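Cross-posted from the bioinformatics board.
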Amino acid sequence: MNKLMRTMTAAAVMAMVGFVGQAMATELVVVSWGGAYTASQQNAYHAPYMKNNPGIKIINDDSAGSAVAKLRAMKEAGNTTWDLVDAVASDAMRLCDEGLVDVIDHDNALAPAPDGTSASNDFGNFIVSECFIPQIVYSTTFGYRKDKVSRPMSSICDVFDLKSFPGKRALEKKPINNLEWALICDGVAPSKVYDVLGTDAGVKQALAKLDTIKSKVVWWTSGSQTPQLLADGEVVVGSTYNGRLFKLIEVDKQPVSMLWDWQVFDLDGWVVPSGTKNKAAVMKYLKFATDTQRLADQAKWISYGPTRASSAPLVGNHDSLGIPMAPHMPTDPLNAKTTLLFNYEFWADNRDDLDSKFNAWLLK
Amino acid sequence: MEKIQENIVTADGIPLKISLARAQRRSKIVAFMMVFPLLVFIVIAFIGPIADMLLLSIDNSIVKKILPKSSEALQNWDEFSGELPGEAVFAAMVDEIKKAKAAKEHTKIGSRFNYESSGFSSLFRKAGRKVNKLKTPPFKEALIKSDKRWGEIYTWQVIKQNTSRYTEGYYLAALDFKRQFASGNIESLESKDSIYLKLFFRTIVLSSLITFLTFVIGFPLSYMLSTVSTRISNILIIFVLLPFWTSLLVRTTSWIALLQQEGVINDFLVLVGFINEEGRLAMIHNATGTVVAMTHILLPFMILPLFSVMKTIPKSYVRAAISLGAHPWKAFWKVYFPNTGAGIGAGSILVFILAIGYYITPALVGGSSGTFISNRIAYHISSSLNWGLGSAIGVILLGIVLLFFVFYDRIVGINNMKLG
């Protein structure tokens, strides 16, 4: 009996110690996209930060895909349980608009470049919203099966050319990007794309161009679908995020090549949910995780370009493959001969309307 | 007689009637206390959210909240007069955008109007940037100078027609109607622009087809399950339940591997020479894919109620019918089949109601011809953030389900349903 009592007391004390120990560590819930992307953040940011700051425990949550809706629901419920969220720029702007995320003072909150350039100058135009801390540049672009085409695809208009490149195509089930590409291939000057798309006639023109390949399109809703469709040989060419194609080509060694023509640049970065209970700890973490070296480090694990000008020269080799990463960056001069930058203002205005028109067109 | 009863008292001197009522009240309270947690749960988890959804689909309080004075000032303006509103409206608007800007709400109101007419999002965003420079009246010219759209009558027509506390705008959109703000008329969209009515129709048609297919496949299977020995039927039931316990995503993805053009079934058909390389069948990323995958996924919901009903039908019924001279087919049709009605009804309504709200499977295998109305609800809730429209579609879908339920109750009777 005595022995039992002693064991139980010891167990209770140990449980208490464990509990206290846990309570002392600050847990930061970081919401991101999961998969290879979260892994790259874990390796480049979280792991070194936790090593230097034993009091911080970073917990990954993979629900960035529904972050906008969830943040709104959390705000309405008055209980924000997330500390940091990874969001694409357009969502960051919407979150900022709705007051769901905090405004950032970039120069005070973030580290300057090694040469002393202020953070806001180092990030430059990529700070598209006052709440947004840019992290990576990614692009939506095409990959094609090099063993199933008669000659390499080099122009975005090859996607619309069923005669020279027969077979199915994978496109995202959204008007965004598809309408722009359709107009460019229908002869609209790339600089005029959004002027034309702003008119009813322009939308009709874009949809008419898409009509020419509609019967051959597999519509995807998640970024992982196109790599799978390409690997299965289900489609000849398909759009997705360039990092997914990098993995398909270099890690999975599939017979796929990149078609960078008129890739659409977009940004991904951090937003701090307003109402987080660990604001100070998050800001301290962000200062570290968005400095020049850390952003360059992330490119060791994923082929997305760092958003700091000062990080670009530091991009090295892939962590496990050992190949230089610079040629796989969407921002590499050889890849970025023709690019569009996601037009945030245009899509904020026209997203609802064009989405209706696009879906009506899909149903025809 | 009554008088005597009133005079009867219990041992402690209280009339029996009162004492009895007390005892009964106590037991009623106890009974109520026992169901109370369930009641609270249902109110919080079920009735509350539905009421909230109903409210959300008509709520327009944001306009009055952020633009109270402008809304009021606009009431004195005739939107069909062909003239812009006066300085008072512009002054109120500038003042309220300033306040909204400080509270970070000016873009919220912009998004609200943008649901009704494209362009308002940037209009208010831009106004938020410029409005603090407008310090002294007259504001009318200054605001128009900051963005010429403020000088268009149409802009103010949209605002004025959306100032009331409640709006029918979301329901109009969910039923493919559009308000023409220039004339104030409500017009239905042309067939080529219609989305939601087509999707509602498709959802009902495909769900009915799926229900029918689960019945066609499930009925003979359940019959077999109920006639073989218990040992074998237990093993077979496990085969029915095993996929039921497998993740929905895994089952859906397996169908992609089977049905796609470079998939197992097409490969086999090409191998045996049934079709040639060019003639590979398109069985996925279209309505066929949705129907096949969902029929498989929902099959257990048909088999289980059917099985449980069939097991209870005595075998002697059919034997008696045959021994009385009925053809085996007639014995089955006239004696056995009517007895399975409760199971068919339960299975059908379960499968149909589940099918009508499905969205993961149609999103993955439905392409553009096999998606359901619930995919649009998911889009509006999680992506476009137009919760009002998402709620309105949800309320209509709920209405359709209830309608089918009432319909079912009239024809089959809900009391005849047997779930197991």
